[in-house]
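User: Let's play a game. I give you a shape written as tokens, and you guess the letters that built it. Ready? Here's round one.
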């Protein structure tokens, strides 16, 4: 009887060894995929920070690289577990589609949203964008979410399916220079032409501005019932200097307003659409 048990014990040990090898193989694939993504992403980030105006183009390789590496990892894991034929792979795809329809719809939409972002490029890594209620620089585009660095230095994750149901506003559309709006408000009886001239001089002499045929500037005057708005449109040479540029131009302009007696509005209502 003891002899009859030996084959069963040997078979169980062999099965356990096979399962252990399979688990180690799968873990190895996951670890290798993670390390590849981590190392290559950091290398590309370092390269992108050194290439100036091509920063966003280099950085956009990162999300595509992630998709390729993870897709190969999933393929090898499925092949190791199931060792499927072509017909079995088709059947597996059908089951996966059914699973998506039953309980993984949100995750699937986020992944599809990530693919749409990478292929159609409504925004890119390095852009200043508004996604939903969040505004900031795009630091990473993952399979399921986009990470933004806000002006308050917070890292916000926005689901990629946001592009399907909310407007997306990109301030620079893949370019390093970005147009900045600066709005200042003065009393309705103050000299608007003088105010516009002061704002124009502060804008064109800023150390952050870029002025050329491709990147022009404009100063507009708009009259409202209780005040006048003086608006400047100009390009900062690097989008990351957005707030330094606005602060410098605003500070210098307001100092000149005070020196020359250009007054602030007494009554300051905010009708809908004033920022447009």
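Assistant: Ready! My guess for every position:
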């Amino acid at each position: 009887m003891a002899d009859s048990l030996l084959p069963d014990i040997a078979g169980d040990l062999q099965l356990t060894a096979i399962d252990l090898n399979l688990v180690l193989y799968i873990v190895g694939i996951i670890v290798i995929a993670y390390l590849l993504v981590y190392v290559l992403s950091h290398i590309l980030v370092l390269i992108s920070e050194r290439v100036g105006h091509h920063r966003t183009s280099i950085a956009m390789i990162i999300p595509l690289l992630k998709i390729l590496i993870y897709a190969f990892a999933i393929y090898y894991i499925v092949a190791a577990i199931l060792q499927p034929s072509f017909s079995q792979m088709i059947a597996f795809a059908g089951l996966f589609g059914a699973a998506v329809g039953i309980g993984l719809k949100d995750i699937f939409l986020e992944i599809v949203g990530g693919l749409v972002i990478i292929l159609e490029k409504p925004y890119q890594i390095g852009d200043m964008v508004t996604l939903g209620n969040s505004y900031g620089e795009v630091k990473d585009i993952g399979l399921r979410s986009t990470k933004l660095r806000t002006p308050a230095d917070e890292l916000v994750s926005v689901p990629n399916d946001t592009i399907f149901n909310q407007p997306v506003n990109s301030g620079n559309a893949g370019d390093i220079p970005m147009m900045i709006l600066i709005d200042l408000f003065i009393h309705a009886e103050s000299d608007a032409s003088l105010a516009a001239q002061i704002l124009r001089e502060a804008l064109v002499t800023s150390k952050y501005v870029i002025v050329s045929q491709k990147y022009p500037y404009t100063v507009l005057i708009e009259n409202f019932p209780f005040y006048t708005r003086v608006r400047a449109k100009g390009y900062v040479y690097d989008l990351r200097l957005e707030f330094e540029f606005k602060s410098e131009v605003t500070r210098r302009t307001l100092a000149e307003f005070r020196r020359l007696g250009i007054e602030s509005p007494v009554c300051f209502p905010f009708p809908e659409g004033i920022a447009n």
